[in-house]
Amino acid sequence: MAGFVTRFAPSPTGFLHRGHAYSALTAHAAARAADGRFLLRIEDIDQTRCRPEFETAIYEDLAWLGLGWETPVRRQSDEMADYAGALDGLAARGLIYRCFRTRKEIAEDIGRAPHGAMEMFRGAPLPRHDESHRLAAGEPFAWRLSLAAAEAALGGFGGLTFVEEGSGPNGEQGVIAVRPELGGDVVLARKDVGVAYHLAATFDDALQGVSHVVRGQDLFEASHIQRLLQALLGLPSPVYRHHPLLTGPDGKRYAKRDRAETLREIRARGVTPEALRRELGFD
Ligand code: GLU
Questions:
Q1: CA of 37 to the centre of ligand 1 (A)
Q2: 263 pLDDT higher than 70
Q3: Is the dihedral of CA 32, 34, 36, 38 positive or negative?
Q4: Taking Cα atoms as reference points, which of 250, 102, 226, 120 lies closest to residue 164?
Q5: What is the pLDDT of residue 113?
Q6: What is the number of the ligand 1 atom nearest to the C-alpha of 7?
Q7: What is the pTM of this model?
Q8: 13, 43, 198: which to mutate for ligand 1, most atoms within 8 A of CB?
Q9: Which residue has the higher pLDDT, 103 or 72?
């Protein structure tokens, strides 16, 4: 397929496990099948959670698996000025606002909302004098996307769609109508981090000419938010191919927090990359 570009975009917050290997192999195989390009992107914007040894391990583990990728690799922490520029543009258009509420306050609000946990946070900018006061006091804040302002800017969300060539967690396929309310007024930047995942990933997918986003179904809902950001930023929309999440013998998905066996542990047991690839369904 002409111009097929995909990427694997891990965050170096831990060692890669089988779930990552499956996702990287799936994206790599898709690029190969389409005679396209495979990129690796390091999503390390949150320097409080990312560690250099995990980034080094990503390169080692993927190379061990037999994958090759284009260089130079884009490292998001080196590109903060790009995201700041995008954020400034959104701020100038009144599409984002500073939110000073803590996570705890928001969780309490959501708990009180009529639809319970399903009700995502929606807010509004503070009155100017109140905001200046808090800024002067050095209070932390997050930049949130205003769905109300976004809806006004786009003349409504009707007609906003993305194409799913894989499937969502509930079997969603084909042309998907975007439901921005799924994410509420999402955080696009935090005072301490400078940018948040949705904005950095959306910006980079466009900048890097990604035509197909191949990733796990856990990020299917993120596509609704990212498609909205594409519309607001005037960026092209890639095709999405979400794949099912790999599950272990206990039927549970592999996850860092459950201490899933890492690729380096698998390697240390003497398993060959060929054997692991076969186990995951790749030759
Ligand atoms: N960095 C994200 C993660 O590790 C993946 C982002 C994406 O594929 O869009 O979960």
A1: 18
A2: yes
A3: negative
A4: 226
A5: 63
A6: 8
A7: 0.94
A8: 43
A9: 72
Cβ of 43 less than 6 Å from ligand 1: yes
Does 215 sit in the ligand 1 pocket, CB within 6 Å? Answer: yes
Rounded to 10 deg, the angle between the 197-207 and 220-233 helix axes is 70
Distance 271 CA to ligand 1 centre (A): 26
pLDDT surpasses 50 at 118: no
Q: Which amino acid is at 152?
A: A
pLDDT digits (tens, 9 = 90+) for 159-191: 999 999 999 999 999 999 999 988 899 999 988
Task: In whole angstroms, give the CA distance from residue 179 to residue 157.
Answer: 8
Residue position matching structure tokens 């299917």 = 220
Rg, Å, the chain Cα set: 20
110 pLDDT exceeds 80? no
What's the pLDDT score for residue 187?
A: 94
For the CA of 216, the closest atom of ligand 1 is 8
User: Is the peptide bond preceding residue 52 cis, with omega within 30 degrees of 0?
Assistant: no
C-alpha of residue 19 to centroid of ligand 1, in Å: 12
Tens digits of residue pLDDT in 42-52: 999 998 999 99
For the CA atoms of 257, 144, 207, 53, the dihedral, rounded to the nearest 10 degrees, stands at -30
Confirm or reject: Cβ of 219 under 6 Å from ligand 1. yes
